[in-house]
Design brief:
Bound molecules: fe (ii) ion
Largest sheet: 6 strands, mixed
Order of helices and strands: EHEHEHEEHEHEEEEEEEH
CATH class: Alpha Beta
Strand order of the largest sheet: 4-5-6-7-9-8
Strand content: 15-25%
CATH superfamily: Metallo-dependent phosphatases
Structural class: alpha/beta
Number of strands: 13
Shape: globular
CATH architecture: 4-Layer Sandwich
Number of helices: 6
Radius of gyration: 19 Å
């Protein structure tokens, strides 16, 4: 099965631009690409910072856009989100009984868990005891099948992260997150993990400057393949429009510049 991991869309109200870009236009481009090139996916998971300021108007704008996704889609909250406004516009989104936007769902024999790492008003995330207890309950009730976990904040340096690691080690096959506006792939406490670029602005990977630098590196979403116990994640540059060419074409091989590439039908 396949699904798409998309993150940090930062949708604004009234098509307000952000850092020189259109959040709404960017998300629509991603959705158009998903609908056209990934028609067989089981679902789209959006890992937070759905909107930029957490207002009802922003969530209404988001609702209009995500309605065009031709697949089931799920949303988690990031530090730019606000639970009350989100719930007002998306009242059908499941909650965990304690007011947190946490839920589970199954596809085939696979189990997917979304967690709420939002600590309202703060940039850093939090997994409090209530949220961790809820997760423990979901893990305990699961007998067999692979488990995949989603949340907004990277687990490294996340308050409650150490307890999370102890709870999910050996049980969760992969952890998907956002927040960084950068791809980060590797393992944390022995748990495989990955993030994607934002659909909008990115953080510069440069820790020598005191300014938090943004940039316009090309956005991605993750096209995730789960097959025979494997987890394969293809970062997909959905704005990429360079020329396509036949790799076995001698004319293409010998083209001195991209402009000299033969068209595909020659
Ligand atoms: Fe973000």
């Amino acid at each position: 099965m396949r699904f798409v991991h998309i993150t940090d869309m930062h949708i604004t109200a009234d098509n307000q631009p952000l850092y020189g870009l259109s959040p709404r236009g960017r998300l629509q481009r991603a959705i158009d690409c998903i609908n056209e090139e990934f028609p067989d996916i089981a679902f789209v998971m959006m890992t937070g910072d759905l909107v930029n300021r957490g207002t009802v108007d922003e969530y209404r704008a988001l609702k209009e856009i995500v309605a065009s996704i031709n697949a089931p889609h799920y949303m988690l909250l990031g530090n730019h989100d606000r639970r009350t406004a989100f719930r007002e516009v998306f009242p059908a989104t499941p909650m965990d009984g304690n007011g947190f936007v946490q839920f589970t769902f199954d596809v085939e024999d696979k189990h997917f868990i979304g967690m709420d790492s939002l600590d309202e008003g703060k940039t850093d995330g939090l997994l409090c005891q209530q949220r961790l207890d809820w997760l423990r309950g979901r893990l305990d009730e699961r007998k067999g099948g692979e488990i995949f976990l989603f949340l907004h904040h990277p687990p490294l340096r996340l308050a409650g992260g150490e307890a999370l690691a102890k709870m999910i080690f050996g049980k969760v096959r992969h952890l998907f997150f956002g927040h960084l506006h950068r791809p980060m792939h590797g393992s944390w406490q022995g748990i495989p993990m990955s993030s994607q670029f934002s659909t909008l602005h990115q953080f510069v990977y440069n820790y020598t400057t005191k300014v938090m630098l943004g940039c316009h590196e090309p956005p991605t979403f993750g096209a995730v393949n789960l097959l025979n116990g494997n987890v394969v994640i293809n970062p997909h540059h959905f704005l990429e429009e360079s020329a396509r060419f036949n790799l076995r074409s001698k004319a293409a091989m010998n083209a001195p510049t991209p402009e000299d590439l033969p068209t595909l039908d020659t």
